[in-house]
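dumping this here so i dont lose it
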C-alpha cells in the first residue's frame, strides 16, 4: 500500500529532533520517507536537548509555516524539560503541536504526566515512529525491513536474523564522523541518512552483514567523490569540508584588526583543511579553529602573523603561519552560532 500524501497531517512542516545513534537517525529516515517538509535536528542527552529545542523554536518562528509539528524521538525528557518545552511552545509566535515517541523506561514519569509523550519499551524508537506514521500513511515493505534491522540491534534481539546486520549499521553511524554536525547540521543529516538509505541495497545479498561491512568504505567514497576524480577517502573528505566552508564562509567569517578570517569548530585536520580553504578563498587572511576542549588553532596565508593573534587571544604562540593556544573563558556550545558569538566577543574585548 502506498502512503497517502493527501492525509491532512502531511501538510504540516515537521521539526524532528532525534538522538545521534542508529535508532535516532533511523527515526529520521522514517519521517523523511513520509513527509515532504522536514527539518532535522540531532542531540545527545543533557543540555544539548534544550539548546536544540530552542533552536527549533527560533527556526520555526523564522519560517512562519501555518501548520507545524515538533517531533522528538529516541530521547527521553525530564519532567522539568517537559514543562519547559510546553511553555516555550505556548509562548511562541507560531502555533505547533508537540509529539514525543520513545522507548526508554527512564521517561516513565513524563509519559504518565503528559499526553503528547508516548513510551513503549518493547520496541525501538525507529519502530515506534514507523508504526505510528505507517498507520496513517500506509506500510512500505522496504522501509519496514530497515526498521526491523534497527529494532533487532537497538533492543538487542541477538537471536533475530537481522541482528548482525543491525550491528554493522550501529557501527556505520557511530563511525560516520566525517562531517561535523555542530558546524554543518544539515549536511551531516544528509550524509547519515544517505548512508542509511544505501544500506538497504545489501539486505538481500548472501551474508548481508558481511557484504555491507565490506562496502562501507566505498559507500563513503561514493558520497564524497561526487564529480571529483577518485582519491583517498581522507583527501575526498577534506575537499568536501573545504567546499562546505566555502559555501558558508560569509556566515562563518570573523575579523581581527582589519584581517578577515573564518571560524571553525572541532574541524579536525586543521593544517590540511585550513591551508586548502585559504588557498581556495584568497579574500580570507586567516583560519581559526576552536575545540570543545578550549584549545584553538590558527593558520595564515602569510597576510597576518597568527602567532601574535594566538598570544593576544589565547595566551599561546607558535609560527607566523601556524599557531595555537587556549581560550580559557570559552564555554562549549552545541549550536555553532553561539560559538561564533563567543569568539567574536573575545576578539572584540582583545581589541579594546
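and the seq i came up w/
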Amino acid at each position: 500500500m502506498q502512503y497517502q500524501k493527501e492525509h491532512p497531517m502531511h501538510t504540516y512542516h515537521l521539526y524532528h529532533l532525534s538522538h545521534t545513534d542508529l535508532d535516532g537517525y533511523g527515526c529520521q529516515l522514517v519521517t523523511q520517507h513520509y513527509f515532504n517538509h522536514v527539518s532535522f535536528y540531532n542531540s545527545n542527552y543533557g543540555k544539548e536537548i534544550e539548546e536544540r529545542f530552542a533552536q527549533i523554536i527560533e527556526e520555526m518562528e523564522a519560517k512562519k509555516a501555518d501548520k507545524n509539528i515538533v517531533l522528538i524521538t529516541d530521547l527521553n525528557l525530564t519532567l522539568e524539560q517537559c514543562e519547559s518545552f510546553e511553555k516555550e511552545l505556548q509562548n511562541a509566535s507560531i502555533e505547533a503541536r508537540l509529539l514525543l515517541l520513545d522507548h526508554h523506561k527512564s521517561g516513565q514519569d513524563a509519559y504518565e504526566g503528559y499526553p503528547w509523550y508516548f513510551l513503549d519499551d518493547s520496541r525501538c524508537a525507529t519502530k515506534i515512529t514507523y508504526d505510528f506514521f505507517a498507520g496513517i500513511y500506509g506500510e512500505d515493505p522496504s522501509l519496514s525491513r530497515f526498521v526491523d534491522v534497527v529494532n533487532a540491534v537497538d533492543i538487542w534481539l541477538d537471536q533475530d536474523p537481522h541482528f548482525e546486520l543491525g550491528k554493522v549499521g550501529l557501527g556505520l553511524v557511530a563511525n560516520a564522523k566525517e562531517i561535523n554536525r555542530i558546524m554543518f547540521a544539515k549536511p551531516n543529516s544528509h550524509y547519515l541518512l544517505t548512508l542509511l538509505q544505501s544500506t538497504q541495497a545489501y539486505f538481500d545479498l548472501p551474508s548481508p552483514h558481511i557484504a555491507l561491512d565490506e562496502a562501507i568504505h566505498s559507500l563513503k567514497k561514493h558520497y564524497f567523490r561526487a564529480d571529483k576524480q577518485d582519491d583517498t577517502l581522507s583527501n575526498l573528505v577534506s575537499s568536501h569540508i573545504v567546499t562546505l566552508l566555502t559555501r558558508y564562509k560569509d556566515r562563518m567569517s570573523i575579523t581581527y584588526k582589519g584581517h578577515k578570517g573564518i571560524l571553525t569548530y572541532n574541524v579536525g585536520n586543521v593544517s590540511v583543511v585550513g591551508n586548502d580553504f585559504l588557498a581556495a578563498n584568497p579574500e580570507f587572511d586567516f583560519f581559526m579553529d576552536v575545540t570543545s576542549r578550549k584549545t584553538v588553532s590558527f593558520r595564515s596565508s602569510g597576510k597576518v602573523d597568527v602567532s601574535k593573534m594566538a598570544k593576544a587571544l589565547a595566551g599561546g604562540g607558535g609560527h607566523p603561519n601556524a599557531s595555537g593556544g587556549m581560550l580559557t573563558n570559552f564555554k562549549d556550545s552545541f549550536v555553532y552560532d553561539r560559538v561564533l558569538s563567543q569568539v567574536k566577543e573575545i576578539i572584540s574585548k582583545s581589541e579594546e
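The chain is about 50% helix and 15% strand.
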